[in-house]
Amino acid sequence: MTNQIEGLECAILINEQTLSFVEDRLRQNSFDRQALEVKRAALNQVEEWIAEAEQVHGNHHVANLGKIQHNKYSGQAKYIIAEIKAGALGPVKNILVVDDQYGKADDPMFSERYGNDKVQGYRFTLEDAFDGTRYSSKKVVARIRTEQRVHGILLDLDFGRQESYGEEILSDVRAHYPEIPILIHSSNNNAQTLLRCLSKGAAGSMPKVPSCATMKEVLDRYIS
């Protein structure tokens, strides 16, 4: 089931690239017959994917991705996306992403990966953990203290190319907030490093660049 959902999600994302390219052509020539035919076929296809996501798999998140895409490129608000709004499908859980890869929360790459319409039921905020001198847990602990509630943390390990900073942050945050699950979310796939982090209290791990379906599956498993 998960593989089928991921396949639908990937297909919709690829369809987005096709529609974006066609739109560029139509801006240059609104009577481009080939572009119009491709656009029509792509919109018909996404309608089929929306129906499959909802009726076969019961996955509203992937269906919403298709609905947003269809509304965007058809120029009509055919689909209502009200259920994607925060809290509309139940309480939203706050996930703190501790990572120095992104310059700030409005970094396009961060928005693309963690935008609040990406994973149903979760809201993501960014903390780079840099206190002005070095990477440490100081800002992370302060951020948790000021947030309304942090339900879970996605923690990178390699800060400033220093693996030890991530492990230091893990240990310190666990000491202050042992009730918050911390998932290692790093491109560092060294097995010994992961085992060491688990021994220091990490709840588990998540791939650095997961699909939205995988991210939701992992978060649902660890975040209560």
Brief sketch in words of this structure:
The protein is of the alpha/beta class and 224 residues long.
Task: Characterise this structure.
The protein is α/β, with parallel strands linked by helices and 224 residues long. It folds into two domains: 2-84; 93-222, Response regulator (Rossmann fold, 3-Layer(aba) Sandwich). Helices cover 52% and strands 9% of the residues. The chain contains eight helices and five strands. It has a five-stranded parallel sheet with strand order 2-1-3-4-5, sandwiched between helices. β3 (152-155), α6 and β4 form a beta-alpha-beta unit. α1 (2-28) runs antiparallel to α2. The protein is elongated. 29% of the residues are buried. The model is unreliable at 82-89 (pLDDT under 50).
Q: Roughly what percent helix?
A: 40-55%
What do we call the CATH homologous superfamily of the largest domain? Response regulator
> Which structural category fits the helices and strands?
alpha/beta
Question: Element order, helices and strands?
Answer: HHHEHEHEHEHEH
CATH class of the largest domain: Alpha Beta
Computed Rg: 20 Å
Quaternary: single chain
**The CATH topology of the largest domain is what?**
Rossmann fold
Total number of β-strand segments?
A: 5
The profile of the biggest β sheet is: 5 strands, parallel
Q: What is the tally of helical segments?
A: 8
Domains (count): 2
Describe this protein with a few key phrases:
Rossmann fold; 224 residues; alpha/beta; single chain; five-stranded parallel beta sheet; 5 strands; 8 helices
